[in-house]
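hey
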């Protein structure tokens, strides 16, 4: 399972982009790096370690939300899915998802893109991948706790507010949700 896309680039530069998979070319916009994107579940131990490394870089080193490591009891569980997002030849993003019950409720968390790669729309692609993957696996609804500053980003992706903001890890988070399709 995977998604790939060539990010939006000026039309004149599109011919310079390459992707091993079918790409989606978006409308032209301002200057962006020309990197083919791809998102998939981590396929082996090395990709799983890449996933964790992205999370450590963003949530431990950059945001300081965790002291040493953000891994928790969810990570080793068999039902937990770990996705990686690639920009060009390197892993640049991650997201985690898992079912919360057997009635179709899923949760997504640990969405992260390396700061130097936040120009490609990889974050949006990771969110869409998590939503599509949970839907394919029978999910009906996905919830997430969203750092307050990212609420507009999720609204643009079709998510809705799902309750009052709460404090988590010292930051205001907005509960949000989206319906899933199989
Ligand atoms: C949030 C995050 C994953 C977004 O990833 P990204 O790759 O930069 O996002 P994208 O490039 O896919 O953004 C898609 C669009 O949303 C916009 N956008 C991104 N973050 C936004 C935000 N916080 N608020 C409003 N718009 C935002 C982008 O500008 C882009 O707009 P455009 O299509 O008009 O150019 C990334 O900024 C990140 O890792 N942040 C630190 C960790 C974090 O906050 N994780 C989420 C916890 S809830």
């Amino acid at each position: 399972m995977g998604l790939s896309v060539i990010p939006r680039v000026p039309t004149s530069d599109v011919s310079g982009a390459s992707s091993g998979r079918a790409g989606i070319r978006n409308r032209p916009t301002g200057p962006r790096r020309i990197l083919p994107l791809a998102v998939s579940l981590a396929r082996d131990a090395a990709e799983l370690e890449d996933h964790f490394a992205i999370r450590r870089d963003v949530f431990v080193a950059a945001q300081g939300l965790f002291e040493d490591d953000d891994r928790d009891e969810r990570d080793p569980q068999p039902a937990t899915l770990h996705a990686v997002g690639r920009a060009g030849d390197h892993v640049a993003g991650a997201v985690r998802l898992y079912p919360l019950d057997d009635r179709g409720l899923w949760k997504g968390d640990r969405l992260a893109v390396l700061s130097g790669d936040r120009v490609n729309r990889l974050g949006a692609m990771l969110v869409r991948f998590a939503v599509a993957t949970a839907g394919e696996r029978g999910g009906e609804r996905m919830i997430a706790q969203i750092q307050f500053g990212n609420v507009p980003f999720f609204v643009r992706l079709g998510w809705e507010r799902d309750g009052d903001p709460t404090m988590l890890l010292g930051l205001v988070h907005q509960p949000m949700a989206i319906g899933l399709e199989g």
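The longest strand covers residues 90-99. The first helix runs from residue 11 to 14.
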